[in-house]
Amino acid sequence: MTEYVAITGGAGYIGGIVANSFLGSGSNVLILDNLSEGNIQVVNALQKRYGKDRVLYRNVDITDYNALREACRVPINGFVDFAAKISVGESQQKCLEYFQTNNIGFLNLLLVAGDRPIVKSLTAAIYGTPRDGFLPLKETYHADIRAQGKGFKKSQLMQGAANLEEMLGWYKEHISGQHKWLGLTPEQIIDSNVPTSVYGLTKLWDYFMLQNREFYTGGKFIGLPYFNAAGALNSPELRLGEAHRIETHLIPTIFEAAMGGIHAVPVFGEKRKLRDYVDVKDLAEAHVLCFDSLLGNGESKVFNLGTGRQYDTKDIMIAAAEIIGIPIPYMIVPDRAGDSRALAADTTAIQQALGWSATIPLRQMLTDAFKWQSNPPPEFQALMKNRFPTVPISLSQAKGKIRYIRQ
Ligand SMILES: NC(=O)c1ccc[n+]([C@@H]2O[C@H](COP(=O)([O-])OP(=O)(O)OC[C@H]3O[C@@H](n4cnc5c(N)ncnc54)[C@H](O)[C@@H]3O)[C@@H](O)[C@H]2O)c1
Fold first, then answer.
1. Rounded to the nearest whole angstrom, what is the distance from the C-alpha of residue 12 to the centroid of ligand 1?
2. Mean pLDDT over all residues of the chain?
3. Domains of the chain
4. Cys-Cys with 195: which of 132, 165, 200, 253 at CB 3.0–4.6 Å?
5. pLDDT in the model for residue 145
6. Smallest CA separation from ligand 1 atom 2, residue
7. Does ligand 1 have an atom closer than 6 angstroms to the CB of 226?
8. Reduced to 3 states, what is the DSSP secondary structure of residue 73?
9. For residue 224, how far is the Cα from the chain centroid?
10. 390 pLDDT above the threshold of 70
11. Which pLDDT score, from 0 to 100, does residue 246 have?
């Protein structure tokens, strides 16, 4: 019997490149995506490369339980879940939409999955603004700060549409009220104080839902908080890369500014902000290893995916200018609330358990990303032209304030 790895969000940036790694390692995939952010071109490219019998696609919204259950009526040996809303800023304004997709959608996936294994995209945003002395971050961060009496006594959420109390009320009404096994433990409620954004909170709750599912059903999972994903796949057989409808990520923004598509890169505040950038192809390999480990009866785990190296926005702009030989215009804009000064992953756990570590250096990641963005395959060109509909800095804002990073 032919079995499939079900990949939600598989028409998106990371999901498409992960699907390619599963296909390359011999698995078949069932892509579940409503194309709200993903692109049918990703599915078409995978089907062209591997054949329609190995790449099934269903246009389905994961928030619709019946439709999801119908779409999953093929033999599935496990799930890899990417489908989510992913913008920190937007999540503060539209928290109900984030709960709906990231939590109700995920609840539906749990109900359809039963006790089959799940590999789940998490995010560094579950760690909020880490306490001093805890970098690089271990997966045990929440428990560690609690155990050392350094836990947060009140919610760190930046100002938004609702407060944590109201949000916990939403969780009770819509998730644990009907599914008692998903009720949050007292520790999980305390740890809900950690994220600074609604986006981070929705992902932390997904992690708690996985923990609670395992407790009650034995269903195994691996949760993967990734730090900043970047880069592209430019193999001779297949090219895939970042093509978000509205792009907020730093590296595509830098290249867009260099190519004149936007006036400047917005740099938030004068202080350095250190981030850990991991190549999407390294992420893809990690997903296959994690999935195989669960199929082989490996334990449930959470593994950070990053490099442990930290770069400031200017470091990335300097490296990018050197590689492409074009000056990068940038402008300092007001700092954003809730932005951590530094985030970096401690990846010892996945190194020791599965032998994974990131292999692709920053310069290669930037080279791949630029190749994709400056010369996308013909079928992606229209998409790539329209991905900065909201110019981050207007001409009048920019006047006289733009600086340049040169080679
Ligand atoms: N890109 C990053 O740097 C980064 C960092 C940390 C975590 N993540 C996580 O990785 C995952 C993938 O991120 P990405 O950058 O590839 O984003 P993406 O927007 O390209 O991919 C998400 C996919 O999910 C689909 N989707 C959204 N809502 C859906 C719904 N209701 N039903 C069905 N499909 C739906 C979208 O159409 C899209 O194809 C997300 O879960 C995100 O939280 C991304």
1. 6
2. 95
3. 4-245+277-312+345-360 (3.40.50.720)
4. 200
5. 98
6. 229
7. yes
8. coil
9. 9
10. no
11. 86
Ligand 1 pocket, mutate which of 8, 30, 36 (most atoms under 8 A from CB): 36
Phi, psi of 206 (to 5 degrees): -60, -40
In the reported structure, the alpha carbon of residue 84 is separated from the centroid of ligand 1 by a whole-number distance in angstroms of 5
106 contacts 174 by C-beta, under 8 angstroms: no
**Separation of CA 402 and ligand 1 centre (Å):** 32
Atom of ligand 1 nearest to the CA of 81: 41
Cα–ligand 1 centroid distance for 74 (angstroms): 23
Is the preceding omega at residue 136 within 30 degrees of 0, hence cis?
A: yes
Q: Report pLDDT for 77.
A: 98
pLDDT at 336: 82
* Nearest ligand 1 atom to alpha carbon 15: 16
DSSP 131-147: PTT-PSBPTTHHHHHHH
Distance CA 37, CA 84 (A): 9
Amino acid identity of residue 189, one-letter, is: I
Does ligand 1 lie within 6 Å of residue 104's CB atom? no
Indicate the residue type of 39. Answer: N
What long-range pairs does 365-368 form, CB within 8 A, spacing at least 24?
365/230, 365/231, 365/251, 365/277, 365/279, 366/230, 366/231, 366/251, 366/316, 366/319, 366/320, 366/323, 367/323, 368/231, 368/232, 368/233, 368/234, 368/241, 368/279
pLDDT at 188 over 70: yes
Residues 6+ apart with CB under 8 A from 11: 31, 33, 35, 38, 39, 40, 42, 43, 57
Is the CB of residue 229 below 6 angstroms from any atom belonging to ligand 1? Answer: yes
Q: Any alpha helices (H) in 72-159, and if so which ranges?
A: 88-93, 95-98, 105-113, 141-147
Q: How far does the centroid of ligand 1 lie from the alpha carbon of residue 191, in Å?
A: 24
Residue 157 Cα to ligand 1 middle (Å):
22
Instruction: Give per-residue pLDDT as tens, 98-112.
Output: 999 999 999 999 999
Question: Which pTM does this prediction carry?
Answer: 0.97
* 23-81 pLDDT per residue, tens: 999 999 999 999 999 999 999 999 999 999 999 999 999 999 999 999 999 999 999 99
d(CA 303, CA 212): 18
Query: 43, 128, 38, 29: which is closest to 79 by C-alpha?
Result: 29
Average pLDDT of span 327-347: 91
Q: How far apart are CA 258 and CA 392, in angstroms?
A: 14
